[in-house]
Amino acid sequence: MRQPEGSEAVVVARPAVEDASASSGLAFDSFYGAHRDRVGRCLALTLGDATLGFEAADEAMVRAFERWEDIRGGPNPSGWVYRTGLNWARSWLRRRKRSVEKGPWLVSANVVDAPVVDTDLNEALAQLSEDHRAVVVLRYFLDWSVEQTADALEVSPGTVKSRLSRALDHLERRLDPPAGTEEGTAR
Fold first, then answer.
1. Is the model's pLDDT at 6 over the cut of 70?
2. Is the pTM higher than 0.90?
């Protein structure tokens, strides 16, 4: 296009699009490497199924990559990934349950694949409701604060504290029953 006579050409510096996407890609790669396995294990424990937990983590990571520019500046990107994975898994389970005609579909408790948990704890966690399991997993396996846990689960901090208290009471009874009870040491 020709410039009109007597006018000066204005050069506008444009940021290199390739450079910007490459740097955000590297930031996401680092985030993925640091958080994918931990979030996957936590989802596996929360959902009671290792395969579903890691699949949910992978699905959430894909969604995080697509929205990385918005998510990376947030207060808790791994909380966003956890919550997105949990929502995806719940939707998948609802669709699966509706597709089964006879009897409810039960999630298997194959979380023994999660390396940080022993079998007794797996069984005790499996007896908790999903809401209580999620609070325990996020607070103790990811070492998140009450506020971070509340944000990820979209509940109030008071709800987190209440659920955590009830869950820990259950786990304590289950994992360390008093002597003389059915599950305790025989006299």
1. no
2. no
